Task: structure prediction
Amino acid sequence: MEYDVVIGIEIHCELKTKSKMFSAGLTSFGKQANTCVNEIDLGHPGTLPTVNKEAVKKALQACIALHLEIDSLVKFDRKNYYYSDLPKGFQITQQFHPLGRHGYITIHVDGQSKRIGINRIHMEEDTAKQYHLDEVTLIDYNRAGTPLIEIVSEPDMTSGKEAAAYVEALRQTLYYLGVSDVKMEEGSLRCDVNVSLKPKGSSVFGVKNEIKNLNSISNVEKAIDYEIKRQKDILDAGGVIEQATRRYDETTKTTVLMRKKEGSVDYKFFPEPNILPIQLDPKWIEEITNHLGELPNARKERFMKDYGLSEYDAMLLIDNKELGEYYQEVMKTCKNPKLAANWVIGDLQAILSKNNLTIQTTCIPSVSLAKLVNMIEDKTISGKQAKEVFELMVQGKDPEVIVKEKGMKQVSDEASILAMINEVLDENQQSITDYKNGKDRAIGFLVGQVMKKSKGQANPAMTNALVLQEIAKR
Amino acid sequence: MNIIEMLKDGNDQKHVVDAYELALKVQPSINAVVTFIDPCKQLEEVKEGKLKGIPVALKDNVNTKGIKTTASSKILENYIPVYDATIVKKLKDAGAVIIAKTSMDELAMGGTNLSAATGPVYNPYDVTRISGGSSGGSAAVVASGVVPLAIGSDTGDSIRKPASFCGVVGVKPTYGRISRYGIIPYASSLDHVGYFTRNVKDAALALEVLAGYDPMDATSSQREVPEYSKLINSDITGKKVIVFKNVLNHMNNEETLALFQRVIDGLKTKGAIVKEVTFNEELMKAILPTYHVIANCEATANHSNLDGIRFGNKQEGSDTFEIMCNTRSQGLSSSIRKRFVIGSYALFEENQEKYLKQAQRVRRMIVEEISSYLKDADVLIAPASNAAAPKIADVLAKHVEEDLVAENHMVFANFSGYPSMTLPMGYIHQHLPVGVNITANAFKEVDMFSIGSVIEEITGLKDAYKEVK
Result:
C-alpha cells in the first residue's frame, strides 16, 4: 500500500545570552558543574523570576527572521511537574500566548523549493542536566534556567531529506542571526521529530511516534527514514501503530522504544503570577527588525548578483557564515571573484582542515589571499607558482614578500619570451623536425627548455602559444 | 517605647539589648519566636538611617542569609538561606537590628498560628487565646512590647487579623509597594509584605524604609516612595469614608459594633463624610471560596520546589522521585497537603475553567465592585473582626466557625491589592483587643495613615501594649 508521510519537528534552541532566562545567573557551557547557579536557578524558597530582555530580543529576532506574527504582549505560564532536574517543580514557559505564531522557512531539496510552516515559537527555561550512574544520580544545575526558544513546525515535511533540510535551514538562520550556537552535538539545538503515516490521499492523520534527542542532522534523516520504513512494514502487515516515544540508536541505526504514551500528562498550565504581562514597544521591535543582519538566502543572492558566482559556489560560501564573511573581505581588494571563490572554497578550506584550524583562527589574512589572487590575475605569477606561495603563506608570510624572496616573478613580456624561444629553437633543430613529422610531444620539450631558460618565470600559457607561433614560421 | 521615641532617645545599644532580653523573657509565655538572633555582632555595624538602632523581628518566611528560615514548616526546619530578602537589606541599610525570626502558620497558610512547627503563639492579652495568623509571632512580639516593628506577610488577612487580635497596628500596603523577593511565598498574586507597629506614625515611617522598586521583583512598583510620616494629615474635613452595611450585618458582637460606632461618630465629628453602602451580597459570599481556589492553586505550584533535592529536610528514597515523595509527605503537615491537593484539583485541565478561571473572573468582579465605591471615596472602614481572639482549645475542638464573612471580609484588599491597615479599636470583655480596618485606594497609603491617625485620637489607643508576666 502507498502512504503519505507526515513529519513535524519540535526544536529546542538555547539562546546565546550572558545570563539566564529569569535570573542574572551566568549561562555556561562546559563550566565546572554547579558553578553557574544562583538561588533563583536552584529554585530556592522566596526567589522570583525576572525576564531577561536580551533573551526576548533574540527570540524576537528568530520570530521576525522566520516570518512569524509577533504577540507584543508577552505573557508567561507555569508548566507543573515534579522531576529532579526541574528546580522549581514547574517550568516557566509560554503555553497560552507564544511570542510568535504562523511563520515559515523555505527549504531546497533536489532542486525544488518548499515552504515549511512554523506553528509557533515560544520562550522558556531549560532544566538541569542529570547523569544517572549505577548507584547515584548527579545533577548539574548550570543549565537550569538557560533561555530556550521552542520552534514547533507544522506537519509539512514528507521525508527524512526534507526534515534534514528544514533543521539545517533553521540552524543556519539562527546561526546567522547570532541567537544561538546551534550545536546539536552539544545540545544547544535539540530536535524531537514526530512521524506518522496515513493511506495515500487520506485526510485522517495516522498515529504518530516521537523520536527524541537526535544529535545530528544526518541522524535526523536516518532516523526518519528508518521510522517510515518501520511503520510502513507494520501497516503493510496489517498491524497497528502504537503512539510512543522512541530514540535513535546510532549503532544499530534503528529507532528504539523508550516509552508508550498512556494518555497525555496534565501539566496544569496556568499564568505565571510573578511576571505581569509585558507590553513590547513597537519601536523596539522595529529597531530589531531593521538590524536583523543578512540572512543566508539574501547573502546567497547577493553573492550571485554582485560577484557573478554560480548558485553552487554561492551556496558553498554561505554554508559556513564566517567563510562567506572572509570571502567578502577578500573581495574588498580582489579583482577576480570567481578565482577568489575557488581559492576560498578549495585551497583555503583544505589547508585549514589539514592544520586543524578554522576560518576564525586562520593565519592567512583576507588581504593576503586577495593579493595572491590578484597576482595570478595580473599574470605576475602562474597558478602553479601561486600554490607554492600559498604553502608559505600558511606560515603567516605576505605573498608579495614570498614572491620577491623567491624571485618568482612571472615573465609575461612578449618580447623577452620571444627572444628566449628563438634561442631555444635555434639550439634544438631536431625537435622542430620531430614536431613537423607529427611528434607533438616535442612542443612540451621546447616549452620546458624556455621555462628553464627563464628560471621558471615565463608565463607558461603565453610561452606555449608563442612556441607554436614561432615554430610555424620555420 | 515606640520607634520615634527610640530614635529621639538615641540609646541604640540599650534598646536592642533590652528588646532581645525581653524577647527571651516572654518566650515561655507567648512562644512567638522560632529563632533568636544575638544582636551583638549587628550592633558593631549599625548603619545610619531612618531606623538606626531599632530592634526588629522578622516573620520566619523572610529569608535571612546564614540564619535559619523555616516558614514554621518541618520541611524547612534546617533550611539556612544563601541570600537575604530585599527587605532585610533595606532594614539593615536603614540601621535596624534584627533580633528574632517569629513563628507563623506553616508556610503562612492559616489564620490561627496553631499550625507552626514550634507550636502555637499565645496571645499576650490572654495566653489561653490564639494570636491569630499567619503572622502571629510578629503580632505578639509587638503587642508584648518586645520590638516596635515586626515584619509580616498578608495573603488573606495574615497581618491585619492578628493585629486585631493582638491590639496592634498591622499594615499591608499596596501590591508591589514592598518587594516580595526573598519572602517564602504562599500565593503570589495575593501575597503582600507588611508589618506591625504600635502606632500609625511609626507605621508611616517604617513604610518609607520598606517600600520601593526592586528589580528582583517583577511585580514591584516603580513609583516614588513618599515621605509618608510627614504627609500624615489629621485634618480630615471633607474626607469620604464608606462603610459596607452588609459587612456589619454579618457581625453580631454588640461590643464590637459599639466600638465601631464610636469610631464612626468620632470621624464625623472631625469632619469626615461617612456613607453607608451595600456590597453585592452574592459577591460578598463568594469572597472566601474565590480566595481558597486562587490561593491553593498558586500555593501548590509555589511550593513544588520543596522536594528535598537541593535543600530542606531531605528524606531517603531509592531514586530521586521517591526522595521527593518521602520528603514532601513527611515534611508537610496534612492540612498543607490537603490544600495542595485542592489546588492541584482546581488546576487540572478539565477543572481549570470551572474553578481557577471562574475564581479569577469572580475576583475581578469583586475588585470592580470595591473600586466602584472607593473611586468616589477616600477610605473604606470596617471592624477587623467580629469577635476577639478565640480560645485555643475552642479552635482545636472546632468550636469556632472559621468561614464567616464577618471574619474574612478583609481578603478583598488582597484581591484588589489596595493598601489596608488594622489598628486597635478598643477592648471587649474588658481586656481583649479588637481592631478596626481601613482600606484606601491603590498607592494612597497616606489617606490610610491620615484616617488611622485620627482614629488613634478617637480611641486613645496609641502605643498600647500588654506587659506579659
